[in-house]
């Protein structure tokens, strides 16, 4: 059997060696002089060995106590190594359940932010910081009840921002289900909150026009725009390309491919965080070349007049419509997408092709990876026919 004196005076050798104590306990000495406690045992007729710590941090007396604990587990029919791994995991879960909602939220956020566009990432963070984290961020996740969550949601509802309430409700549920998935919680406290106890958002589509006479009138109005060249050309291009206002206003020249007659916007700039291709009809290429003669040396296709290092804003497009006498109840810049969608469906184009060109999300993540180029030939044909249709309306 070992003694403290034997262990202290044991010298290192050129190779690792062990000195036995009793009942499977031994001390292992490395060539560097580091001393580890090892316990050797058999479970289901299979030899195994586990570490019991370093000497002198774990004394001889403590090592024997730890060995006896493992022997007791064997007597109960348990594998000591597996038991220790499982216990360590359970202890971690127990500690993690004491983490704050802040910590849980940021774990969830980091897990998901790479799938979001930059704008969506900022919106999620801003809304959650303002309406969620400041109220329950410091509470332990194991202590948060459905009533705590209800109180938070009702505070948002009382502000009258129902759309924000719906967003925050969704994020909160996802965070708690994330915790359930990790084994940190057994129940999502938002699960039992019925939607009926909250006010509903009034659904209002973006104002848009669909009658061909109204579309013709709009196009002629855009042709007579009196304002900056940047906003004027952007507004003329808008009906042709189906882009969201922010995607159009912030177009960069590096996204324009004149050779392949297309725009390719990287996923970072798209609402659904997927790269998007817009085939260009000759009418759009002509307008872009007109703009290139003015802003070709800029990063942006439509640079701001006040600061060429920035693009025009989506608001400038909306303001341009208003200055021409087109009010918000008649048409919004976003409504141009609805206008195109309605007309193209009426003209018999396939819904899948239209939806892909509108960059509407694909729920299947694997399929979505390849979707930026899906139906590209059909979309090229559709976009050219659409631009020809718009031209014919103004004749």
How would you characterize this protein structure?
This protein is α+β, with helices and mostly antiparallel strands. The protein folds into 3 domains: 4-93, Integrase, DNA-binding domain (Double Stranded RNA Binding Domain, 2-Layer Sandwich), CATH 3.30.160; 101-197, Orthogonal Bundle (DNA polymerase, domain 1); 212-393, Intergrase catalytic core (hpI Integrase, Chain A, Orthogonal Bundle), CATH 1.10.443. The chain has 16 helices and 7 strands. α5 (118-136) packs across α7 (162-181), α9 runs antiparallel to α11 and α9 (229-241) packs across α12 (314-323). The longest helix has 20 residues, at 162-181. It starts with a helix and ends with a helix.
What structural category arises from helix and sheet content?
Answer: alpha+beta
Number of strands: 7
Q: Report how far apart the termini are.
A: 105 Å
Average the pLDDT over all residues and give the rounded result: 88
Rg of Cα set: 33 Å
| Main beta sheet strand tally, sense and closure | 4 strands, antiparallel
Task: Detail the topology: elements first, then pairings.
Elements: H1 4-9, E1 17-20, E2 25-29, E3 35-43, E4 46-55, H2 60-75, H3 80-96, H4 101-112, H5 118-136, H6 146-158, H7 162-181, H8 212-223, H9 229-241, H10 245-249, E5 256-257, E6 262-265, E7 276-279, H11 282-295, H12 314-323, H13 335-346, H14 351-357, H15 365-369, H16 376-393
Helix pairs in contact: 4-7, 5-6, 5-7, 9-11, 9-12, 9-13
């Amino acid at each position: 059997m070992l003694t403290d004196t034997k262990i202290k005076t044991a010298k290192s050798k050129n190779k690792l060696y062990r000195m036995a104590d009793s009942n499977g306990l031994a001390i292992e000495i490395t060539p560097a002089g580091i001393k580890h406690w090892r316990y050797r045992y058999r479970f289901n007729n299979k030899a195994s060995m586990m570490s019991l710590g370093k000497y002198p941090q774990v004394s001889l007396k403590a090592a024997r106590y730890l060995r006896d604990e493992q022997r007791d587990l064997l007597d109960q029919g348990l594998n000591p190594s597996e038991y220790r791994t499982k216990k360590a995991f359970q202890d971690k879960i127990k500690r993690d359940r004491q983490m704050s909602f802040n910590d849980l939220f940021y774990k969830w956020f980091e897990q998901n932010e790479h799938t979001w566009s930059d704008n969506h990432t900022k919106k999620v963070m801003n809304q959650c910081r303002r309406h969620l984290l400041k109220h329950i961020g410091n509470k332990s996740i194991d202590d948060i009840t459905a009533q705590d969550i209800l109180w938070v949601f009702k505070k948002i509802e009382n502000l009258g921002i129902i759309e924000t309430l719906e967003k925050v409700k969704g994020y909160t549920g996802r965070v708690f289900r994330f915790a359930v998935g990790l084994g940190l919680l057994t129940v999502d406290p938002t699960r039992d909150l019925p939607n009926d106890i909250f006010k509903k958002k009034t659904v209002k589509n973006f104002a848009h026009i669909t009658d061909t006479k109204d579309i013709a009138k709009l196009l002629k109005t855009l042709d007579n725009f009196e304002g900056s060249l940047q906003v004027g050309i952007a507004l003329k291009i808008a009906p042709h390309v189906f882009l969201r206002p922010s995607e159009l206003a912030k177009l960069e020249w590096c996204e324009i491919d004149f050779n392949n007659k297309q725009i390719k916007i990287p996923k970072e700039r798209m609402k659904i965080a997927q790269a998007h291709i817009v085939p260009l009809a000759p009418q759009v290429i002509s307008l872009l070349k007109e703009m290139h003669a003015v802003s070709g040396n800029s990063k942006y296709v439509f640079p701001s007049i006040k600061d060429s290092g920035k693009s025009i804003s989506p608001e400038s497009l909306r303001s341009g419509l208003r200055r021409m006498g087109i009010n918000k109840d008649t048409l919004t810049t976003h409504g141009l997408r609805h206008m195109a969608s309605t007309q193209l469906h009426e003209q018999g184009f396939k819904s899948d092709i239209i939806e892909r060109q509108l960059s509407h999300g694909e729920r299947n993540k694997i399929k979505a990876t390849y979707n930026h180029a899906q139906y590209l030939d059909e979309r090229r044909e559709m976009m050219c026919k659409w631009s020809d249709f718009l031209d014919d309306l103004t004749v």
